[in-house]
Amino acid sequence: MFLELANHNEDLKQLLERGYAITEDEGYLVVRDIPYLDNNGQCQTGSIVSTIQHLDGKKVKANDHVILFAGSHPCEVDGTPIVGLGGGATTVALPRASKDVVIQRSFSNKLATQDGSLRDYRDLFEKIENYVTIISGPAVAKCGATPYTFREVEESLTKSVFKFRDTLTSRAQIVDLSAKFADDVVAVIGLGGTGSYVLDFLVKTPVKEIRGFDLDDFHVHTAYRSPGRLEEKELGTKKADVYESRYENFREGLFFERRYIDAHSEESFRGVTFAFVCVDKGKSRAGIFDLLIANRIPFIDVGMGLNRTRGSLDGTLRATYYSLEDAQKLRDLALAELVDDPNDEYRIHIQTSELNALNAALAVIKFKQIRGFYFAQDALNSLILQVGNIKTLNEVL
After folding, report:
1. What is the 3-class SS of 15-71, one letter each residue?
2. Domain membership flag for residue 171
3. Which residue ranges of the chain lie beneath pLDDT 70?
4. Domain with 222 in it: what CATH number?
């Protein structure tokens, strides 16, 4: 609630008491009912928007001296554009709760000091007051308009999945892109080397829900190929419990199960919209593929193969996307091992944290391309990175 935020920030409290129709929406300070004159001398109403940074759970500050404006360029009484407002036309999508505010331009203005130099604003009250004086001054003089409407603005009822405000998204002006994940329920099957990094990346992604599955224990070697600090008390406990403890203070929508997934695990996957398969056993992977394909859940399977050659490690990383349309065809191509090698117990499985993280990054980037967050030039099914020459082999199957 904005009132609660204002109780901890004197500048926001001043703006509220001044009478502004003001609220905060996912890192944006939105001030509505701002009067201004258009180029025909007609009184119009716009909105001022400032990105803000949350310093902790209570305190905020402006990111910079720039504002966004919903409206045409404000003019003087004689119809000429107001000078001193740098910037220009721009388009920024605000969160859904502020969809009535359509950004058309940005403005840049700093305060002049007595010696003629320019300075930044001390706080948000000084910033908003200065811009309102410039933008609304002619409308106040001509029409008797006022920006102090004391109107209460309905606040968003949408609760963020994050327990700390994500100010980076609004600062980068990608709120509309992040909203593409709002309805996703994502499963991570296997929380080992690569799966733990997939989980870490997804925790910071605003998907609706994340479900993690693993029955294995967390050992010292696990810590060497997973993100985060090691607590001695974690050793010997279940991976699912370790990661639940690490991330539960960061976001909502986390659910972990201490279990292996097979073709008969339908109950745990009701409502899942996407899955990441991060297991290293062929037989386990085959059952998981059967489950996901039968339940029409698109997924990405990851794999890593490293060997010592010529005195160094070499090999490949793979991330393969199984879409609803092509999943069975890709399964039949056997791009991933679906049976267990009888000699597998004699192999030395080499995995390093940086390559686990890179394998996970390839998979999560592909997922975000599928959702439209990242641009994708080609509809690639399989991404293969060769460690020796750091080249990717991109395949459309």
Report:
1. HHHHCCEEEEECCEEEEEEEEEECCCCCEEEEEEEEEEEECCCCCEEECCCEEEEEC
2. no
3. 1, 155-159, 165-168, 170-171, 340-349, 394-397
4. 3.40.50.720
> Are 340 and 273 in the same domain?
yes
Q: How many domains does the chain have?
A: 2
Neighbours of 143 (CB within 10 A): 17
The pTM of the full predicted model, rounded to 2 decimals, is 0.70
- Mind listing the pLDDT tens digit for each residue in 72-108? 999 999 999 999 898 899 999 888 788 899 999 999 9
For 191-207, the pLDDT digits (tens) are 999 999 999 999 999 99
234 shares a domain with 154: no
Torsion over CA of 181, 183, 189 and 191, rounded to 10 degrees? 50
- What are the structure tokens assigned to 193, written together? 């080397």
Using CA atoms, how far apart are residues 48 and 106, in angstroms rounded to an integer? Answer: 9
Please, what is the average pLDDT of the chain? 89
Pick the closest to residue 364 from 223, 197, 224, 227 (CA basis).
197
Residue 295 neighbours by CB distance under 10 Å: 13
CA distances from 42 to 58, 74, 106, 145 (A): 40, 10, 21, 11
- Answer yes or no: do 313 and 187 share one domain: yes
What are the phi and psi torsion angles at 222 (to 5°)?
-65, -40
- Token pair of 323, please? 């879409």
Q: Which domain holds residue 133?
A: 2-159
Distance CA 247, CA 375 (A): 29
